[in-house]
Structures are given as C-alpha cells and as structure tokens.
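User: Teach me something about this protein's shape.
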Amino acid sequence: QPTRGLGSVRPTACAARARARSMWPRSAGLKPASPPAGRQAVSTRPAAGSATAGDRYQGLKATYAQGPLNVALSYEQSKDKDGGAGGGNVNKIASLGANYDFGVARVFAGYQQGKDLAIGPGFSGTLTIPGLAGAVTKLKAFTVGASVPFGAFTVGANYTKSKLENAAGADTDLAKAGLVATYSLSKTTTV
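Assistant: First, the predicted structure itself:
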C-alpha cells in the first residue's frame, strides 16, 4: 500500500478513522493545532521536504471542536522549489473529516480528493496501481466508521473506498473494511 509523506501519495489516506484533531501530517516536525473543546483553530505551516533539499511541503488546516462534535478541513500540496523534473505544485490534497460522540457510540466520516499526484525526489516519479494503465493522477476517497465502548473494551468498524484515475480518465476502485478491538489497561495504556 503506497503511503503519502512529503513527496509521495497515499491513496487510502482515509483508511484510518477520520479523527478530526489528528489529520495534520506529523512528518518534518509538523504538529497539529488542536483546539481545546469549544474552540476553533486555523493553522498553516510550510516545511522543508524530506525527499530532497528542493522539495517543499505546504499545508493549511482548520478545526472545530464543540462538545461531542469534531471537524477538520485541510489542504496540502508539495512543490519542487528548484524546478526539477516534477516542477510546479504537485500532490494537491483536500481532506475533510469529522466525528461525533453519541455517548453509546462514536461515528467517524472522512472524504479526501487529490490531483496532480507524483512521488519521489523532485516529484519525478509516478504512482502506479495494478489494474490501472498509466500513472495515477487523481484520487477520491471516503471512509466511514464507528466505535462502541463496552466497559474497558472498545469495538470498532471502518470501511474505506478510494477511486484512482489516470490522465486518460480510466479508473479503478480500492476498498477496505476493518474491525478493531481494544482494551484499556489504564487511562494512558491501551492494548
């Protein structure tokens, strides 16, 4: 499964539960601007890329947290600032995620859209997926999930679907479902 860091792409980026306060990339020393409950926040942060000295990551995120509702919206892109083979802005990704805690259950949802996808140093590489001729240039993905606590146990389920498209307009779908169970040993330790 391809992953997206600085200079690469993760088409199943919504695969993890959409936790509105944790959608900000943590690579390259980036930290989320998580507001306390009942607060809103907007943050922006450019950072040097990890692929080469010429790559640059840029992002903007807005969050809202009020009572049981958490929502986050983010936009990010990378740029080869030295004008390498990839040139210009690439990996333009917009994401929206939210969760709501009903008390007896928490529901999660997320949506992500990306275009001008490229990978590797200088963004000169292309992302290829079995079953799709040519390089992936666009993605659309969504995720839905829920978790239910049972005392110290929490049981969760998640479904994610991604649509990947090449420059010619041909596309393929990837989907994944998951189940998880956790047990809280303490307030800070979960297995």
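Now, about its shape. Residues 134 and 168 are 8 Å apart (CA to CA). Residues 1-35 have pLDDT under 50 and may be disordered. If you'd like, I can walk through any region in more detail.
User: That's plenty for now, thanks!
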